[in-house]
Specification:
Elements lengths: L2 H22 L14 E12 L2 E9 L9 E7 L5 E8 L10 E9 L2 E11 L5 E10 L6 E7 L11 E8 L2 E9 L5 E8 L6 E8 L11 E10 L2 E9 L15 E8 L4 E4 L3 E2 L7 E7 L5 E6 L17 E2 L6 E6 L2 E6 L7 E11 L4 E4 L4 E6 L3 E8 L3 E6 L4 E7 L6 E7 L5 E7 L2 E6 L4 E6 L8 E17 L4
Parallel strand pairs: 1-20
Antiparallel strand pairs: 1-2, 2-3, 3-4, 5-6, 6-7, 7-8, 9-10, 10-11, 11-12, 13-14, 14-15, 15-16, 15-17, 18-19, 19-21, 21-22, 23-33, 24-33, 25-30, 25-33, 26-27, 26-33, 27-28, 28-29, 30-31, 31-32
The structure holds beta-D-fructofuranose.
Beta-D-fructofuranose binds next to strand 1, strand 5, strand 9, strand 13 and strand 18.
Amino acid sequence: MTDREQELRRLAAESTAEKKDLAASDPHRQRYHQMPTAGLLNDPNGWVQWKGTYHLFFQWNPFQPDHSQKFWGHWTSKDLVHWTEHEPALVPSEWYEKNGCYSGSGFEKDGKLHLLYTGNVKDAEGNRESYQCLAVSTDGRTFEKQGPVVNTLPAGYTAHFRDPKVWEEDGTYYFVIGAQTEQETGQVLLYRSEDAHTWTFAGPLAGSHLNGLGAFGYMWECPDAFHLNGTDVLVVSPQGLDSEGNRFQNVYQAGYFLGTIDKEMPSFDHGAFHELDEGFDFYAPQTTEDELGRRILVGWMGVPDSDEAYQPTVAYEWVHCMTIPRELQVTNGRLIQRPVDELKTLRSGDPLEMRMQLSFGQEIAVTPAAEIDIDCSAANRIELELRSEMTLSWDKDTGELTLQRPSFRDGSTETRSCTVPELHHLQLFLDHSSVEVFVNGGEAVLTSRYFPHPQHNVVAAGGDGTVVWTSWELRKEE
Ligand code: FRU
């Protein structure tokens, strides 16, 4: 380990030790979502099950709740519910990553856990360089850096070239990577390799003005390509889309295309772009296939450049968390996302079960961490006020499902909506400062942070028609 690495590790450990009690005292600390001990978390990285253990890494600034530094934090889990934090896997100590160990992926090769990530370098004028770097571990704890394995930009592209996501197929390794052309259009490029060390640029796979797609943003971040239920899927986070009605309401989007990838050309014959999440806070998701053959997605419950400095947790020296893990399926040309089954083990005690006449209006006591399952098939209109801070409403006449919360910046009401012509089912995961709403068994998801008063623990339900309500407190037994 270099002196610089030792120094950065020591500083990070000191800073975390100093801030962790303050962070832990925050009433908005989550109960069952993954969050940093202190500092800022953004993208999930290196998401993989290796030798039976899930490894989830994350973009982490251990020093303060802003983006000034990027380490890779590291958690492991056997069951997707209980997680152990480890020493940071990567710290930005070397010349090729001095301004951040940016996002990347994890994969197995020769029995070893490999990480391919972007080394971000900026000079005094803010000029950027990007290196795709390899680090290898035999114990799943310490990572030996092998330095850049891709150190040149392909011709015609800017240095916005990052977030490689690797997979192996029939003995060949591939990665997709986010890129920007010199004309400032967003693309995903494909690379291939026989040994995961020497990589060849195969060409652009998809992007703005490719495969029949029109103008579609100035940069595509965090791509992920995989095969699921007979189709190819490209998940990507494009930047620079203008909002169109309900669509693209956040400053940056995260979504997917379905179709057929031709790795030789390369090209991707794909359909329309669909957002993965209709809530306020979701970006840069990453998936992995686990040993049970499930395709599991984890996302960052945040969006870049979105009022994060106004989140009340910043005063407690931390900000952001991950979503719960979601299992993906492709059904009828759409990705369906469902909370992984393991989360049922969080249900504590007997459920509260009742049939409710919505027109009477009703207040139901909930715990700040709860799962609420609502059969809505006999409702025409439903309005749920969650802990006096957020409303979720649906109206059969408009076919709109709407989420509203006070903005973190100035308290004015913010809205996100999506079209749900028929609503049969809602599944809500509440934690101390987040809500994840799964609609109709995962046809749509709305993910958002909110910061209710810790003593406000009521859901007020109103509307027209009846619903069947089942709720559980969620608790993590250590
Ligand atoms: C997405 C992103 C990535 C980058 C990382 C840096 O949120 O901007 O493109 O690798 O965050 O933290």
